[in-house]
Amino acid sequence: MVIYLYGNDTKRSRGHLDKLIEKFYRERDLQKLNVRRVVVGADDETDIRSELLTAPFLAPKRMVILERMLEKGDAELLAWFGARFLDAEPPSDTIVVVWEQEPVKKAKNSNEILHARLVASKFAQEFAPLEGRRREEWIIRTIDERGGAISADAALELARRVSDDFDISNTIDVLVSHAGGSAAVITTKDLDLFLPPDIENKIFEAMDAMANRKSDAAMKLLANVWFADNDPIYIFAMLHRQVRLLLQTRELLDDNSTTSEVGVAKALNVHAFVAKKLLGQAARWSRAELVAWYDRLIEIDYAIKHSSSDPRVLIDKFVAG
Fold first, then answer.
1. Reading across the β-sheet that carries 2-6, which strands appear in turn?
2. Partners of 67 in the β-ladder
3. Of the candidates 239, 246, 292, which has an alpha carbon nearest to the alpha carbon of residue 268?
4. Is residue 191 helix, strand or coil?
5. Is 255 left (phi over 0), alpha (psi -120 to 50) or beta?
6. For residue 272, what pLDDT is reported?
7. I need a surface site. Which of 23, 119, 154, 221 has the fewest CB within 10 A?
8. Strand runs labelled E in 109-252
9. Torsion from C-alpha of 56, 57, 62, 64, nearest 10 degrees
């Protein structure tokens, strides 16, 4: 059997590889004597051909993991591997796992040909970076595997608020531990206990209040932002970005009144969650109103950079109308 794991999302592919090894130990190699991991190009003294053809020891099967063979292996090794394990029937007592970081793009022909053949094999699996709904589904599945449960809204929020997969994995462990298992479902309130303040969402809420001409409510929301983050320059940058995105969304709607969340997300390169909120808010203003807001923010930006005015006061005045 030949298993091919490849793709840029090395955290997930290595996690999957670790699970394959654990399953092999559990089902076929309790003494843990028959797994051999070879990093091609780094383990210079290793005879890869010999490793692949060695019989298992006190077990029915042996597992050999070849890392970066397509990237580092020479043409002779790749040709031999293709002939012995793809053209011919591979040894029935050996499981071969070929692990690559990404699809071959800049390699020699022999690498590209072997990659294409491995991709077409029965046990090939690509680990591409997860985006959008697929990332949310991965979060739900991972939390379930770790003994917890999470609401759909919380999974979406977690995917939006934590971009790094290593950080998100650690956060999942903390959330599952806090929830105490699957009996308690992780909610958006739980995220606020362990994640940095969600300033982007607070800005959204303040803009909602401004859209409804509720300046007092907008000011209270802004006060919460000040409390959560004391950097007025960062808050101003977020507010500036928000108005810019609203203006761009309004222009998309003016050009095509049936513009969808997917269209906004693609055009502005934002998360679907953000696109949905932008569509709802942009519909409440005219393009002229948003242009006027944007011009005021340009004036505030100039004042922040060229005067002694307190940025907080300038931003508060903007929100108050």
1. 35-39, 62-67, 94-100, 2-6, 124-126
2. 39, 99
3. 246
4. helix
5. alpha
6. 77
7. 23
8. 124-126, 149-150, 185-186
9. -100
The DSSP symbol for 59 reads S
Give the strand pairing for 94-100 and 62-67. parallel
Q: Give Dmax over CA atoms of the chain in angstroms.
A: 79
Q: Domains (ranges, CATH) in the chain?
A: 2-126 (3.40.50.300), 132-194 (1.10.8.60), 199-320 (1.20.272.10)
Helices (DSSP H) in 90-151: which residue ranges? Answer: 109-119, 132-145
Q: What angle do CA 6, 12, 87 make, to 5 degrees?
A: 25
Q: Provide the residue type at 300 as one letter.
A: I
Fill in the amino acid letter for 189. Answer: K
> Which residue carries 């591409």 as its tokens?
128
Give me the amino acid identity at 251.
Answer: E
Structure tokens at 43: 């383990």
Instruction: Please give the pLDDT value at position 106.
Output: 47
Torsion angle defined by CA atoms of residues 303, 308, 314 and 315, in that order, rounded to the nearest 10 degrees: 90
State the Cα–Cα distance between residues 154 and 266, nearest whole angstrom.
Answer: 23
56, 64 contact by CB (below 8 A): no
Within 8 A by CB and 6+ apart from 300, the residues are 236, 311, 314, 315, 318
For residues 245 and 207, give the distance between their C-alpha atoms in angstroms, rounded to a whole number: 12
- Token pair 């859209």 is found at 211
Spatial contact of 57 and 65, defined as CB atoms under 8 Å apart:
no
**Residue whose pair of structure tokens reads 């490849």 in the numeric block:** 6
pLDDT digits (tens, 9 = 90+) for 157-185: 888 778 776 678 888 888 988 887 656 78
| pTM across the whole model | 0.53
